[in-house]
């Protein structure tokens, strides 16, 4: 594999952005279709195409595993760098998540909120699971898609802990994974690879950190390590270059999602299809498709905002129509299309003003603080 191609591909991993956009859209349509009656126009077609919509979460997790290898491979494991890594991850996720969660909580206050909502809000904003069941959601979050961000933040913490071990970081990472995903479940006699079958161990966070859904991140880490290992990269790319192998794997993965075959968040359920799709894109098509449609790349850029906003948008529109005395417009195919369009428009604005501008501002504050500390250290 030519070094020039690899450097060029790293400058803008559009394959990953495209997959992020597809994953976000897959989850979004799956949730929004609930406003359509079973006999509504296009409902059967949408059910067929997007019936495995939650698989987008598995794909997100595989991508996250790869990205963590990508952004930490040259990180010098000092205490300052590790703290900066954690700060950057939180800056990337928390502001947008907090703003949307608070707005959605305000909307829900006009509908219905349980008496426990202040505690639920606090735990949601701290990325803590709310309950011990059901697996792997564990009470969801006040903004329901936040349950997956609990896993995301936990995975970042695992990476940060692993960085403490310098060159042995990935050995430490896999040791922790062995303890949490194999050792503890085996000790309690509840080991499984199906995320929704994980037994209750009595504590929400313990349930979460031992849930098999985390294997999706591990699959992404494996792919990342293989991608930056010359021999493995060449072997995988060579295998996928054999005539029809890559398109065959891609078609089988898509068939799994469309058919519902082995559906679930486990590594041998949707995790298998997600890993296959990501592998084909990153090891094969990334070096052959030089330019993706700009709208797909843009969808990937704002995928996080799409993921956060689609539920508040559809709930808010339904509330608005009912408040105005037009409940008939709060459901149906037209409502589905309107919710999707408004979600995309609002996501673009949220991406521009919160994800980009606010995140950039907080990032500059982080660097300014770092420079100030360095100046104080040097001046004596």
- What percent of residues adopt helix (DSSP H or I)? over 70%
The fraction of residues assigned to DSSP E strands is under 5%
- Specify the biggest β-sheet: none
Our measurement of the CA-to-CA distance between the termini, rounded to an integer number of angstroms, reads 50 Å
User: Would you count the extended β strands for me?
Assistant: 0
Low-confidence segments: 1-12, 372-380
Quaternary structure type:
single chain
- Count, helices: 16
Structural class: mainly alpha
Mean pLDDT: 91
Secondary-structure element pattern, one letter each: HHHHHHHHHHHHHHHH
**Global geometry:** globular
Evaluate the radius of gyration. 21 Å
Give an account of the 3D structure.
The protein has 380 residues and is an all-alpha fold. Helices cover 71% and strands 0% of the residues. The protein contains 16 helices and no strands. It has helices spanning 3-11, 14-32, 43-50, 55-72, 79-111, 117-125, 146-163, 169-187, 204-209, 215-227, 230-241, 245-259, 270-283, 294-301, 303-323, 333-378. Helix 2 (14-32) crosses helix 14 (294-301) and helix 4 packs across helix 10. It is globular and about 65 Å long.
